[in-house]
Amino acid sequence: MTKPVPHIIQAEVIEERYARGWHCLGLAHDYTNKPTRLEYFGTKLVAYRGEDGKVHILDAYCPHMGADLSLGKVEGNSIRCPFHQWSWGSDGVCDDIPYAEKIPAKACIHSYQTMEQNQLLFVWYDPEGTEPLSEEMPPRIDDCYSDEWTDWTVEIIPIHSNCRELVDNMADSAHFGPVHGAPITKFQNIVEGVTYTQELWSSSELLAEDGELFSRATYTGPAYMNTYMKGQINGQDVESRLLVSHIPITTESFDLRFGVMVKKNPNLTEEQNAAMVQEYVKQNQTAFFQDVDIWHTKVRVDNPVLCDGDGPIHRLRRWYAQFYVDRAQVPESLKERKVYGLKTNSADVAEA
User: Fold this and answer.
1) CB atoms closer than 10 angstroms to residue 276
2) Long-range contacts for 236-239 (Cβ within 8 Å, ≥24 apart)?
3) Residues with Cβ < 8 Å from 269, sequence gap 6 or more?
4) Domain match, 110 and 207 both
5) Where would a tag sit more exposed on the chain, N or C end, judged by fewer CB atoms within 10 A?
6) Do 118 and 222 fall within a single domain?
7) CA neighbours closer than 13 Å in the CB half-sphere of residue 111
8) Dihedral of CA 182/184/186/191: which sign?
9) Structural domain total, the chain
10) pLDDT by residue (tens digit) across 104-144?
11) Handedness of CA 282, 286, 287, 293 (dihedral sign)
12) Of the candidates 336, 14, 326, 310, the residue with the CA atom closest to the CA atom of residue 168
């Protein structure tokens, strides 16, 4: 029998371009009138809450002599440079130079649109400079404002890899058994425009004990994913929401914000609920870090060898690629609603 020719893994050089979309910067209340330094999108930014109550984000390097504005002071809705005291408004335009009679016409830096939703802060990024569309907005989740649910518990996890490695998980049905001990009983992906949803039903000793785990995870845009999950803990049903949101530091690294909130059990005391929540949050974190360990050691593969039991990896990557091209280049076909189950992925296998 002739031995097959070994498959050569291919991985193209990654262009230094970052995805168009809303990126989560964590809990909104963490941002105050004290400047916060952010190192994302291959540069440095500064975030601060102005007297108008809104969080403003600007490029952090002062174009006068290059000082770091995150070391400056917030005054009203502006931030004053610590080096020569030039003041920059929330729109990025210089609004005061203490020792100058005239402000140079070129005295302007890039400002970024922000929004607060679901108790989280988001920043809009687009290398084209376009405005966000309504369908790209992170949808409101009423649970995030309900006393029946806990607040978010959020961790920041630095990942030394390209963002696509994380997003691939949405179609990777086969890893749930060996990595998470949660073999799939039913799995499907739903694609429509800028949203990508994964629905799965499985067993899970960690998150569902002897019952069934149900999970519905939806990306809105390239970087913000919210999951509704129903499982079991201590023999009782438990509902939770997960935040899985990344923001690129460089093309080869990103910060991942992993958050958990849990619906309180009305049959438990406040103390019992606190203990239950703490335990379930820990279990979710344990399950998620099982993926992190893989990402830190794997290699990027642009031409994976797929089988008929794999999820729609190629279809997912085509969806994700739309955020890395100009709007005019996004295929119209991506706007159509499509559902992919494990028995509809023969095209992905053929492509491999």
Assistant:
1) 19
2) 236/265, 237/211, 238/262, 238/263, 238/265, 238/276, 238/280, 239/263
3) none
4) no
5) N
6) no
7) 17
8) positive
9) 2
10) 999 999 999 999 999 999 999 999 999 999 999 999 999 99
11) positive
12) 310
Query: Which structure tokens are listed for 23?
Result: 């990126």
Give yes or no: residues 109 and 41 share one domain: yes
DSSP string, 80-142: E-TTT--EE-TTSBEEE-TT-SS--TT-B--EE-EEEETTEEEEEE-TT-PPPPGGGSPPP-G
Lookup: tokens for 103: 């402000």
What pLDDT digit, counting tens, does each position of 68-115 carry?
A: 999 999 999 999 999 999 999 999 999 999 999 999 999 999 999 999
Residue 1's pLDDT band (boundaries 50, 70, 90)?
A: low
The Cα 51–Cα 209 span in angstroms is 49
The number of residues making up the chain comes to 352
Quote the strand ranges of 180-292, DSSP E: 184-192, 195-202, 213-220, 224-233, 236-250, 253-262
Q: CA-CA distance, 23 to 257, in Å (whole number)?
A: 10
Distance CA 35, CA 58 (A): 11
| Tokens found for residue 126 | 């687009």
Residue 93 DSSP SS3: strand
How far apart, in whole angstroms, are the C-alpha atoms of residue 88 and residue 349? 53
Q: Domain limits at 30?
A: 21-136
- CA distance linking residue 9 with residue 343, whole number of Å: 26
Tally of CB atoms within 10 A around 267: 8
- Cβ 114 vs Cβ 124: under 8 Å: yes
> At residue 203, what is the residue type?
S
Helices (H) and strands (E) in the chain, counts: 5, 19
**Which residues have C-beta within 8 Å of that of residue 77, sequence separation ≥ 6?**
50, 51, 52, 54, 56, 89, 90
Alpha-carbon distance of 60 to 96, in angstroms, equals 17
DSSP conformational letter for 130: P
Find the angle CA(156)-CA(171)-CA(316) to the nearest 5 degrees: 95
* Residues 165, 64 within the same domain: no
